[in-house]
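Reviewers of the previous submission asked for a worked example of the structure-prediction workflow described in the proposal, so we include one complete record here. The input consisted solely of the amino acid sequence. No template or homolog information was supplied to the procedure at any stage.
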Amino acid sequence: MNTKKIAIYAMLTALTVGVSLVILIPIPGTNGFVTLCEVGIYTAAALFGPMGGLIVGAGSGLFIDLLSGYPQWAIFSLLIHGLQGLVAGYFAGKGSVRWGFGLSLGTIIMVAGYFFASWLLYDWPVGVASLPSNLVQNIVGIMVAIPLTKALMRLPLQQSTVKNK
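From that input alone, the workflow returned the following structure tokens.
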């Protein structure tokens, strides 16, 4: 990995963390919120493949929880979002059907991962309660990431960096 890619991954991670901590969509009934973390993860995965998705996913998941005051979730988020980005990045650039499959698989990894983490940390009803909000978070993330990624792919400056998987 060269210095340019490391800097880009660090900037995407920081941007994902910043957006996720500033833009919070409240979830009635659970006192939780939906973040835009998936936007950064899926965009990095589309632009930079599995390694970009892994690094941005793992880093942003870890830092969001630590900075939000939820250290008990930090390792879970590192693993879940890292795997989510890795899988989504693997299918990126292989056609829209395969990319859709990668996004769907990333969604399943995230929703199932947080279900099991909630079950482990608290109890199974908490895991069940987390399912709808995590699903909504992924759907919102996909809806924002797809047009954002398409717009970024059209930028001529990106061509030297993007798709160097």
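The first helix runs from residue 3 to 22. We consider this example representative of the routine output the project will generate in years two and three.
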